[in-house]
Design a protein that fits this description.
With about 425 residues, the protein is an all-alpha fold. About 80% of the residues lie in helices and about 0% in strands. The chain is built from 16 helices and no strands.
Length: about 425
């Protein structure tokens, strides 16, 4: 049976959207990470609501976010150097195994009734240390799984995977938490790490070629930082991700308090808010994946950079749950278009021998900005309330986008 032109175009679009999945190693990665990340989102959702139940404090939500993210400032650049020296698969497996143990420890504390707010803080801090080594390795690992022509698509599908988990994980966590309690959310997360570990073990990878060691670790770090400083577009994209991490996505920390104090809901409301943001982000990632090499990434980045703060400002004013969910979909879409376009533009410009270090800088600016943003958002919400806090953050993100539009017009022309 012959396909008509419309069917042929649809088939070609689907094939382009999921091009990276034709590589066996990437298929294993995608499926393993999807399961593991869904578990991680369950833990993030349950942990936030647990700490709010224990303390009733928006500021304490900021402390947990700060504890989880501050290791990025200490370890993530060094993690980038390690990711260029040792097999990235091995580094990821060690980090994932550590996070699995920490999830089971938190579940045990809840089951025994011993859990205290400081336990959550310490375990969030240790989880952040593991993530500081895991994140740059995962970012740089993608190039080992696909051919160079499919790299942009693989980055987009990575984002799709992350945000598909961000849709499913919080929604399941809200139900499981309400019916069975938070310990089951943490236990399921611990078990989910087995999926990605098994996927990594099943991969057939070419021999890892470590970057030759020239000079000390400090010298190698300096080389990566010098590249970022000297490459103007890369520097601009990375600095903007710092703003987004500090003032944009960090407001997710406030969702447990927002669910109760602003919308009059409960843990299921918190799960819905996180899932709506994840749904928007997933749609943005799928859109970029479907466009493939045809995407005018600079133009998409510009659109997303304005959609994000506008949706944030509207969300700050909303008091009706369905409208809030719609605005969070828009906010998630804008964030993912900015983050994914930035990632693809940086990855396609950086030399292979500097990839781990440059991606560690990229990751640091975002993951490093989030804990400071969480701490700031929690403190502000405690003093002036959650809605005004979000409105102020939206204004800062909008100012950054406007300055780049005005002073650096070449960014929107990048491909």
């Amino acid at each position: 049976m012959r396909m008509n032109p419309g069917q042929f175009h649809a088939a070609a679009t689907v094939q382009q959207t999921f091009a990276a999945l034709r590589h066996p190693n990437y298929r294993l990665w995608f499926l393993g990470q999807l399961v593991s990340l869904a578990g991680s989102w369950m833990q993030t959702t349950a942990q936030g609501f647990l700490i709010f139940e224990l303390t009733k404090s928006p500021a304490f939500l900021g402390y947990v976010g700060f504890a989880a993210g501050i290791p990025s400032w200490v370890f993530i650049l060094y993690g980038g150097v390690i990711a260029d020296r040792v097999p990235r698969r091995t580094l990821i497996m060690v980090a994932q195994s550590a996070m699995m143990v920490l999830a089971f420890m938190l579940a045990g504390l809840v089951v025994t009734g011993l859990v205290q707010p400081w336990h959550v803080l310490v375990l969030a801090l240790l989880n952040g240390v593991a993530n500081a080594f895991d994140a740059p390795a995962r970012q740089a690992f993608v190039v080992e799984l696909v051919e160079r022509d499919d790299l942009t698509n693989a980055i987009a599908l990575n984002s799709t995977m992350f945000n598909a988990a961000a849709v499913v994980g919080p929604a399941i966590a809200g139900v499981v938490y309400a019916l069975l309690g938070p310990a089951w959310c943490f236990t399921i997360n611990g078990l989910s790490y087995l999926a990605v570990i098994a996927a990594l073990l099943a991969m057939r990878l070419p021999p890892f070629l470590a970057t030759p060691r020239v000079g000390s670790t400090t010298d190698q770090l300096r080389l990566g930082l010098s590249y970022v400083k000297g490459e103007h577009a890369t520097r601009t994209l990375i600095l903007n991700m710092a703003v987004v991490g500090l003032f944009g996505i960090s407001l997710v920390t406030l969702f447990p308090a927002w669910s109760v104090n602003v919308l009059g809901g409960d843990v299921r409301t918190n799960g819905l808010l996180l899932s709506a943001r994840g749904l928007g982000a997933m749609s943005g990632a799928l859109m970029i994946a479907s466009l493939g090499q045809r995407a005018a990434r600079g133009r998409l980045w510009t659109i997303g950079s304005f959609v994000l703060p506008v949706a944030m400002a509207a969300f700050a004013a909303a008091r009706w749950l369905p409208l809030s969910l719609v605005l969070l979909v828009g906010m998630g879409w804008g964030f993912m278009v900015v983050a994914n376009s930035s990632n693809a533009l940086v990855q396609t410009r950086v030399p292979d021998e500097l990839r781990g270090r440059v991606m560690s800088v990229f990751t640091l600016t975002f993951f490093g900005g989030m804990p400071l943003g969480s701490l700031l958002a929690g403190a502000m919400a405690q003093r002036i309330g959650e809605p005004i806090t979000v409105l102020i953050n939206a204004s800062v993100v909008l100012l950054a986008s406007s300055l780049i539009w005005w002073r650096l017009p070449y960014i929107r022309k990048l491909r």
